[in-house]
Amino acid sequence: MIVAEQKPLEDLQRMLKGKKKVLAVGCGTCVSVCFAGGQKETRGLAAALQTAAAVDGEELEVHERTVQRQCVQEFIAPLEDDLEEYDAVLSLGCGVGVQTMAERFPKTRTLPGLDTNFMGQPTEPGVWEERCVGCGNCVLEYTGGLCPITRCPKQLMNGPCGGSEGGMCEVDTSIPCIWSKIWGNSENLNLMDMLMEVQPPKDWSTSRGGAMRRTVVRDDLHQPNADGRTTTTEVAAAKADAADGPEAEVEAPPADPNAGAREDAFLKELGLS
Ligand code: SF4
Ligand code: SF4
After folding, report:
1. Is 61 helix (H, G, I), strand (E, B) or coil?
2. Would the CB of 175 count as within 6 Å of ligand 2?
3. Measured between alpha carbons, how far is residue 139 from residues 16, 59, 132, 142 in Å?
4. pTM of whole model > 0.90?
5. Structural domains of the chain ordered from first start
């Protein structure tokens, strides 16, 4: 899941300075599991912002909505009808959610309410740890499912550096040496022979470096429309153009009245509430 944290209230107040009416938009997926941008957090933040504005003698009305997935255009489409009445949207989605909102609604100022940290997992109550940097060329096959790129500060690919002590990393003694863990479990997984093979230099061309990585398109999922425009935004715009009116835009799922209950059940299932 994507792990994020709410920006400090002062930063949000600064961003919203001069705005009178704002829509805070939460996301019911990853950021609700890390308690940053789900329905409860969005509601709480809306109230906190209004209270802070009142204390400062400013006028600010903050409404809130939570969509199930802010990074998918079809899920945010129902917001469109009301957006005109707001001076800005405060997105409590991850950076992808913010950008999906900004691209879908280019006439509305979309502001980020969260700092997006990494792809990770909850390891104990209140703690989330990074597990993947999306290198685009996964090596977990020969490391027993543990990622040395994310979890070894030296990003070593052929075994430990030799500096670990008591199974802890020499760079950061608060974290386990992931190579100790990989070796420690290799016998169980029958991975010893594979680990003794020297891995060639990793192909970093698929990783983050310099420019945007493009979506990997799967042929079985990719269905270009007739005129060759394929993104959801482009398809929606093309449909509206063709039918001569915004009412003909891509069909959106209706607002989900059970989003809150489902979010609660999801968190409960994960043992987080
Ligand atoms: S090897 Fe790459 S894709 Fe696989 S978990 Fe590590 S960072 Fe993620
Ligand atoms: S001690 Fe282990 S995790 Fe830390 S840098 Fe060395 S090999 Fe990597």
Report:
1. strand
2. no
3. 43, 53, 11, 6
4. no
5. 2-119+256-269 (3.40.50.10660), 138-201 (no CATH)
